[in-house]
Amino acid sequence: MAHRCWPALLQRLTADDPLAVLRAFRVLCTLGETCGDFLRRRVSKEVLPKLSASLVRQAPVSAKAGPVYTHTLAYKLQLAVLRGLGSLCQRLDLGEADLDAVCEACLPYLSCRQPIRLQEAGRSGMGRPRDEFSDNVLKLLREEFGSAAANELDG
């Protein structure tokens, strides 16, 4: 079934319509629970670069936005992707390069200028302490923000 719906799902995941991307991402997360082997390479090559770039592009927008922004579709998409990306990567057992790309995309959301829920989702997108790739996350945090930020996430 996943093989047959993949082209249509990919089209929606890479669309410019945030509602289509949001719904397609939810479907992808569900498929990730059962079709890991089928999705691993496809997500790595075709989906992660697009989602990561979108998160990076939207980070400055949400950092400058007011309270009304939390009611927009763009915010809801950011929130869903940030919340689901880390666990999707773990379920698909993606490689270190992919995990680094996800961490880089989530990093701007740790800023205190971001809405609180995006900050929390950014932390979950980077993995929970002692997860498979938490060492990479902590290393990245130390490089970007110093040891205090890494210790806060680890602690």
TrEMBL record:
Short name of any one Pfam family annotated for the protein: TPR_TTI1_C
Superkingdom per UniProt: Eukaryota
InterPro entries assigned: ARM-type_fold, TELO2-interacting_protein_1, TPR_TTI1_C
Entry's Gene Ontology cellular component terms: cytoplasm
Domain TTI1 C-terminal TPR: 1-124
UniProt-listed SUPFAM superfamilies: ARM repeat (SSF48371)
Protein name: TELO2-interacting protein 1
Species assigned in the record: Liparis tanakae (Tanaka's snailfish)
Gene name linked to the record: Tti1_0
